[in-house]
Amino acid sequence: MSIYDLIVIGAGPGGYVAAERAGALGKRVLLIEKAEMGGVCTNWGCIPTKSLLNSAKHLVHAQESSKYGVHCGDVTFELSEAMAWKDEVVQTLRSGITFLMKKHNVEVVAGEAVCIDRNHVAVGETVYECTNLIIATGSSPFVPPIPGVENELVMTSKQILSIDRIPRKLAVIGGGVIGMEFGSLFSSIGSEVTVIEMMPEILPMMDGEFAKLMRREMKKITCKTSCRVEEILPDGLVYTDKKGKRQQLEADAVLLSVGRRPNTGGLKELGLDIDRTGVVVDQYMRTNLPGVYAIGDVNGRSLLAHSASRMADVAISHMFGTPQQMRYHAIPWAIYTLPEAAGCGMTEEDAKKNGHRVISASAQMRSNGRFLAEHGKRAGGLCKVVADADSRVILGIHLLGAVSSEMIHSASVIIESELRIQDVQEIVFPHPSVSEIIKDVCFEL
User: Which residues partner with 257 through β-bridges?
Assistant: First the structure.
């Protein structure tokens, strides 16, 4: 058997994109996946959560539609039907990935890969040889050593996606992106949700002003910050509040969402350099072993699906074409809660810590005509632009409000291109569109 130009371990948004790109170049590629095509993102992460959140948002919009002149009558939510919709979406995308692999002549093997050395990978009794190897094994939910964590009411983000009932009281341990998205979902469909976060504020990567506004807008969720969970009980949990007092919280379901850890099992034996965040890589996704690359969550650099896909492009371009580099400063993030939030680049606090003389400006989303027409003057939302006072280069753009996730790519282009305030002021945005808010804020600087 001839040698593969590339073997990819893991078929998530990093692995399958890398295989697709290399296959499109006419390379002989083998993709190995032990679970389902699409990895966590397609099967137990991005896609199923957004499918269920969409169902929840339809419910909320129907409940609130009378203020727009639309009267729906008695609106109900059927969890089993929402789950069926989620499963249909996941299966469709999974099939689409399989089609892409066939289209680009990528061979796919189902099973667990074992790295023998940097040029040989075994699946069962079969050994495959390659010139280049990409490790895209992803990450798994971190389960903290909390007493009682083995109780039946405790679930990870993967397990809760198969829940067959709406919890009466849901306790969420961790106020990051995953915790707040599930909190938004279940609070919208009828659960009493309490989020317990160790940090002084939820969503620590978010601009502080935005995090406070997010908490205020998510009125159905109780957020307990600066609190530490001490024990999980059969009917809830015990936590220490910000004053150091022990408190008990009743719950019939507990979601663990305190972060993820890279799947590096078996990789250290290969000789890879691994630190506390994951496999160590350079700007081209190269590891310390020649011909071996690591992309996505397994390297711990940016635990986002679109980061993994970009890392795939960078790795493939370095292997077979003109080298590109990862530039993490322009990677956008988005939270698909109700309301949505998104950001790209530095917060005002980050920019000051990095030595910039900062100027910033903000505007309420309801000052935008399209946003006002569709959401009303009571809807909360904000746009903030952060720039360097001397060069006037834009350093960060932050959004809170409906469709934020669909606008943030423009911020990525602005920051990647190092556009100045005056450059954005000259761009023609369609009217009416919510995206105009970015240009309007630039005129406030």
Answer: none
Percent of the chain at pLDDT exceeding 70: 100
Question: Which amino acid appears at position 356 of this protein?
Answer: H
CA distances from 24 to 9, 21, 100, 101, 102 (A): 18, 5, 10, 10, 11
Pick the more confident residue, 268 or 440: 440
- Please report which residue ranges of 118-223 form alpha helices under DSSP H: 177-188, 208-217
- Catalytic annotation present for 120: no
The one catalytic residue in 58, 104, 120, 431 is 431
Pairing of strands 29-33, 4-9: parallel
pLDDT, averaged across the chain = 95
Tell me the three state secondary structure of residue 194: strand
Which has the closest alpha carbon to 9: 29, 25, 28, 32? 32
Render pLDDT for 7-52 as a digit per residue (tens, 0 to 9): 999 999 999 999 999 999 999 999 999 999 999 999 999 999 999 9
Instruction: For residue 153, give the amino acid letter.
Output: L
- pLDDT given for residue 322 in this prediction: 84
Q: Specify the pLDDT at position 1.
A: 60
pLDDT for residue 176 is more than 70: yes
Task: State how far the alpha carbon of 31 is from the alpha carbons of 79, 148, 151, 316, in Å.
Answer: 35, 39, 37, 14
Q: How far is CA 198 from CA 195, 204, 238, 338, 374, in A?
A: 10, 11, 14, 23, 36
The bridge status of strand 278-279 relative to strand 274-275 is: antiparallel
Could you tell me if 345 and 329 are in contact, meaning their C-beta atoms sit under 8 angstroms apart?
yes
Within 10 angstroms of residue 393's Cβ, the number of other Cβ atoms is: 16
Using one digit for the tens of pLDDT, what is the confidence trace for 177-187?
A: 999 999 999 99
Q: What structural domains and CATH numbers belong to the chain?
A: 4-140+261-326 (3.50.50.60), 154-258 (3.50.50.60), 329-442 (3.30.390.30)
The residue with tokens 């137990």 is 44
Give me the long-range contacts of 61-68 (CB less than 8 A, separation at least 24).
67/376
**pLDDT by residue (tens digit) across 99-131?**
999 999 999 999 999 999 999 999 999 999 999
